[in-house]
Amino acid sequence: MSLRQAGWSLVIAASFLTGCATGTLQYEQLSAEPAVTGLTDQVLLHEIPFFPQEAYQCGPASLAMLMSHQGKSVQPSELVDQVFIESRQGSLKAEMQAATRRQGLLPYVHDTRFSTLLEQLDAGHPVLVFQNLGFGFYPVWHYAVVIGYDLNEETMVLHSGTTAGLERDFKRFELEWRGGDYWAMTMHRPGKFPRNAEPTPYLEATAGLEQAGQFEAAALAYQAASERWPDQLIAWMGLGNVRYRQQKFEDAQHAYQQALTLNVDSAAAHHNLAWALMRQQDFDAAYEPARTANRLADEQGDRYRSALHAWLENQK
Amino acid sequence: MTFRRASRLVTVVSVITTLVVGSLGSQLAVADIVGTEALLQEQSGTVTRDELQSLIARGDVQQKLIDYGISPEQASERVAALTEAELLQLSQHIDDEPAGGSVTLILLIIILIILLR
Q1: By the CB < 8 Å criterion, does A93 face chain B?
Q2: Which of A15, A125, A136, B101 could disulfide-link to A186, CB 3.0 to 4.6 Å?
Q3: pLDDT digits (tens), chain B, 117 positions
Q4: Which residue of chain B has the CA closest to A137?
C-alpha cells in the first residue's frame, strides 16, 4: 500500500469515527425533554470577557474568563503556573478545579446531559467544557467556554481558542464535547448555586474548598447548603470542621450540636463534638459525646473511637 | 531509576515530617476529628482511604509534577489545592489523564498533507 493510499484510508477512517459511526446523539432528542421546553429559545451571555489563548494555554485562558465573570481580576498569564504543564502541552481537569478553589470560588462539575448545559446557560452561568477536537485515535484536547445557544438555529456560542463568540452547530459541538466525555463545569461564588444543584456534588465541591484551606469560602458554602437542604447533616458537619480547623472551637461545637439535632445517632457528630469540647478544655462536657461516639463506632466504624481514647488518656 | 525512587522517598518523608512537626491539626500525627471528605465518602459508600494513603498519593503527585518540569515550590502549592479523591486518581493515572491545551488541528493536517502528497 502506498503512502497515498494509506493517507486516504486514514481520512476515510477518520470520517467514519467522527461523521458516520456516531450512534445516538443527545441533541436529536432535546426538544422532547421537559427540562428544555421551559428554556429561553436564545441565550447569549454578552458579559463574559474573552481572553485569547496563547500557545497551548486554553486552560488558563478559559479559567480567566470564568473568574473575571465572577469579579476576580485575573489574567491568563497568572494562572499558567497553577494549571499548565509544559511537557504535557495542556492542563488537567483536576487542576482546573484546584485553581478555581485557589481563587475562593466553588467549582461544580455537572452531569453529562446536554440539557443540563443549556439549563446552566439559561440561568446565566457560562460553562467550561472539555472537548476532543481531533479524533478518537488522534485526540486534540481542548477547553472552551460556552456562552450561549440558539434552540431554533441549533447552534452553540463559545469563546474558544483565539476566537470570541465562535458558532458551532449542535451536532459538531456535541461530537467534540462527547469526545471529552461530556465534561462540564461552572464556577460560583461561595453561597451561590448552579441551577438544579444537587446536595452531594455541591458538598463535595465545598469540602474541596475546605481541603484547599479556603476556610471562609467553605464556611459560606456550607452555611448556604444547610439552608437550602435543611436535612443535610454533612453541611453542618462541614461547617463545624471548618471552624475547628480555624481553631474556633466554640463555633465548631455549635455546628456539631446542630448536626445532632438532625440525627442523634450520628457517630461523627458526637465524635467531633467531643473533640471540640476537649479543645476548649471542657473534659466534663466531652465525656458523654465521646462515650456515645465510641458506642456507635461498633456500627459506624472504628475511626469514631479516638475521642474517648483521648479523653481517657487525659484522665491518667 | 534509583535516583528517582530516592527523590520520591525524600519527598514523601519531607511531606510526612512537615505534617507531623508542623501541624497542630494533623490527622496523621495525632487522633482528631473526622474530616468532611471522609464523611462524604462514608455517605456515598465509596471505600474510605486512610490518612497515610492520602499522604503518599500527595507525595506521588507532587513528585510527578516535578518530573513534568514544574518547580518544587509550585508543585507543592498545586497539590495543596487538590482533594483526596483527585490525588488518588492522579497518583494512579496522571500520565493517562488527558491534558487540554491544543489550539488547532495543524499537526493532524500536516500529517495528512505529508501522506497525501
Answers
A1: yes
A2: A125
A3: 455 566 666 666 565 555 544 443 334 446 899 999 999 988 887 766 677 888 899 999 999 999 999 999 999 999 999 999 999 999 999 999 999 986 555 556 666 677 666
A4: B108
Inter-chain CB proximity A244 and B33 less than 8 Å: yes
Calculate the alpha carbon distances from A38 to A32, A42, A172, B105 in Å: 11, 12, 24, 37
ipTM of the complex: 0.86
Is the CB of residue A279 less than 8 Å away from at least one CB of chain B? no
Residues B97, B90: contact at Cβ < 8 Å?
Answer: yes
Which chain A residues in 7-46 lie under 8 Å from chain B, judged by CB atoms? 7-8, 10-11
Buried b / exposed e along A75-110 (16+ C-beta atoms within 10 A): ebeebbebbbbeebebbbbbbbbbbbbbbbbbbbbb
Contact (CB<8Å) B100/A10: no
Q: If you count residue pairs, one on A and one on B, with CB atoms under 8 Å apart, how many are there?
A: 171
pLDDT single digits (tens) A50-98:
999 988 899 999 999 999 999 999 999 999 999 999 999 999 999 999 9
Burial class (CB in 10 A: 0-12, 13-18, 19+), A47: exposed
